[in-house]
Amino acid sequence: PQSISGRGRVSRLVSLSWMWFLLSVCQAQRATDDKPNIVLIMADDLGIGDLGCYGNDTIRTPNIDRLAAEGVKLSQHISAASLCTPSRTAFLTGRYPIRSGVCVPTPRLLVPAGLPLNETTFAAVAKKQGYSTALIGKWHQGLNSRYRSDHNHHPYNYGFDYFYGMPFSLFTPCWPDPSRDTELAISCRLWICVQLLAVTALTLTFGKLSCWFRVPWFVILLMILFTFLLCCVWYYSYTSGLYWDCILMREEEITEQPMKAERAGSIMMKEAVSFLERHREEPFLLFYSFLHVHVPCPTMENFIGTSKHGLYGDNVQEMDFFVGKLLDAIDNLGLRNHTVIYFTSDHGGQLESRLGHVQLGGWNGIYKGGKGMGGWEGGIHVPGLLRWPGKLPAGKVIEEPTSLMDIFPTVAALTGGTVPQDRVIDGQNLMPLLQGAVQHSEHEFLFHYCGVYLHAARWNPKDSQAVWKVHYVTPVFQPPGAQACYETKLCECSGEGVRYHDPPLLFDLSRDPSESTPLTGDTEPLYELVIKTVADAVQAHRKTIIPVQLQLGKELNEDRVWLKPCCGVFPFCLCDKEGNTSNLGP
Ligand SMILES: *[C@@H]1O[C@H](CO)[C@@H](O)[C@H](O)[C@H]1NC(C)=O
Ligand SMILES: *[C@@H]1O[C@H](CO)[C@@H](O)[C@H](O)[C@H]1NC(C)=O
Ligand SMILES: *[C@@H]1O[C@H](CO)[C@@H](O)[C@H](O)[C@H]1NC(C)=O
Ligand SMILES: *[C@@H]1O[C@H](CO)[C@@H](O)[C@H](O)[C@H]1NC(C)=O
């Protein structure tokens, strides 16, 4: 009996320590204050003036405003570029896009180039710390580089464990009128015709060779020629972009080609909620990269006509609705206090997007200029909200300069990781500033690029309220007298399309946030000092730039048929694997 009870005690001890082990493993894996969950939300082309919490009184954005009320609002949050791809590159890597060579002068689709594989993203940093990582939504950092499905630049190669969304970007052809469905039906029939013709031609050839039929060769040849012609006609009639660029992928599989843009938002949200549910027990990082509010602003029927600002306003309100869904999901899973949420826009609204006479691009509030305009404030001054209940003050506004590049080192700090030591990181960990441990941002200078060209720089001196902004190059607006590049649709970064300023233009944003009246030596006693100090800073910055291969040179960007993603048999790339997904209407 002794030995039995002894054995019993041992087995109880073993099972207890086993339980303790299991418990401690579970504890270690749950998101905690040491390893909070991270949800980064990025809007596409949203203007800072479009949100209630940044002063808009006609567009309703209650969910985004709630984030601002419950967290910190950054009032001088600056993107590293005023175009999608380079701005996102800088956001992902914490480095000016010129350092990785992703400096697109025009928003092309980045084929076959992409974010260099030796760049480290915040997802890779978090993953190394045991986080589950996902990208849901827009990627736009490249896809294929050698053949149709090599997926060399897929998010999986940059630290993301899961991907659902658009490898490219929305653009106008992605949301054609509903007649597309008929067009799709016709193209499907054409594909069947081609298949039938090909099978018949093959049968006839085989029959002729086996002497079963007596069909003249020229008939067979004609048939083959006709089939080939049909393929060519099909391909060339669908170079519209809708078929080749407007696609959705889940992991590495194309799920919709062409995509049904107005329902993409609902599916993305379902994917996000399901990711949160799958990973609620372990720390995760979700980069939720909205397709909203980029043109053509695909909007669900139940949001059409709900705003006072046409389709664009409806689309902003729909985006806010989805932000609400995401916040609700986080609350419902009990993750609220262990989740840091960030909201921003990749850059300012595009002033040139119009549908007839109606504005279809964002509103940049009091700031001058917009998307694609290098240094003007409207293109780079974006919303920045951070919420972490109990850890970050609620309702605080921080006016110090911050950058989208700061998210990279901030994620490293939050996850317990480190930033790479073998390269320059331009971002700064935001936590000390957000939590009030320091009063001043580390960003004394920020540089504003247009493609590879440095157009402007800002200086926030540590000991003064002034925010100096020096412009060396500005785009030439057209037609004359306009405040944007309406004729070319997008401003140029160099050459004929810009004006070089020597002496440079100087503004003090603290007194003149709209950059309306340049200061001169006569109106500003510090003029010479500021121009000299900023010029020195620019020179010092330039010394840190190591030339790398540019990812978006013209020769890399040509249309390459063999790189086009295809769901089906080329050129008949058509599929819809989502079936009938009913949307998450309000
Ligand atoms: C609100 O946003 C709309 C749409 O972008 C814009 O037209 C309007 O001027 C904005 N209102 C304010 C007060 O900023
Ligand atoms: C979350 O944090 C807030 C603020 O510190 C606190 O009041 C609340 O009780 C916390 N909720 C939970 C479920 O821990
Ligand atoms: C990545 O590789 C390129 C090409 O070899 C090189 O020029 C660049 O410096 C590398 N970048 C980093 C961050 O190591
Ligand atoms: C899709 O499903 C919804 C509800 O489940 C239904 O009302 C609708 O008719 C379906 N649409 C199609 C095209 O099958």
Write the layout of secondary structure elements.
Blueprint: H1 2-29, E1 37-43, H2 62-70, E2 72-74, E3 77-78, H3 84-93, H4 97-100, H5 122-128, E4 132-138, E5 162-166, H6 180-209, H7 217-237, E6 248-250, E7 253-257, H8 261-278, E8 284-289, H9 310-332, E9 339-345, E10 354-355, E11 358-359, H10 377-380, E12 381-382, E13 384-387, E14 396-398, E15 402-403, H11 407-415, H12 431-435, E16 445-450, E17 453-459, E18 468-475, E19 498-508, H13 527-543, E20 568-569, E21 572-573, E22 575-576
Parallel strand pairs: 1-8, 1-9, 2-14, 3-15, 4-5, 4-8
Antiparallel strand pairs: 2-13, 3-12, 5-6, 6-7, 7-22, 9-13, 10-11, 16-17, 17-18, 18-19, 20-21
Helix pairs in contact: 6-7, 8-9
Classify the helix fraction into a percent range.
25-40%
- Strand order within the widest beta sheet: 14-2-13-9-1-8-4-5-6-7-22
CATH superfamily of the largest domain: Alkaline Phosphatase, subunit A
Structural class: alpha/beta
- Give the count of structural domains: 2
CATH class of the largest domain: Alpha Beta
* Number of beta-strand segments: 22
Let me know the average pLDDT. 89
**What is the count of helical runs?**
13
Shape: globular
Cofactor: Ca(2+)
GO molecular function, one term: arylsulfatase activity
GO cellular component, one term: endoplasmic reticulum
Protein name: Arylsulfatase F
Describe the structure concisely.
The chain is of the alpha/beta class and 586 residues long. The protein has helices spanning 2-29, 62-70, 84-93, 97-100, 122-128, 180-209, 217-237, 261-278, 310-332, 377-380, 407-415, 431-435, 527-543, and strands spanning 37-43, 72-74, 77-78, 132-138, 162-166, 248-250, 253-257, 284-289, 339-345, 354-355, 358-359, 381-382, 384-387, 396-398, 402-403, 445-450, 453-459, 468-475, 498-508, 568-569, 572-573, 575-576.
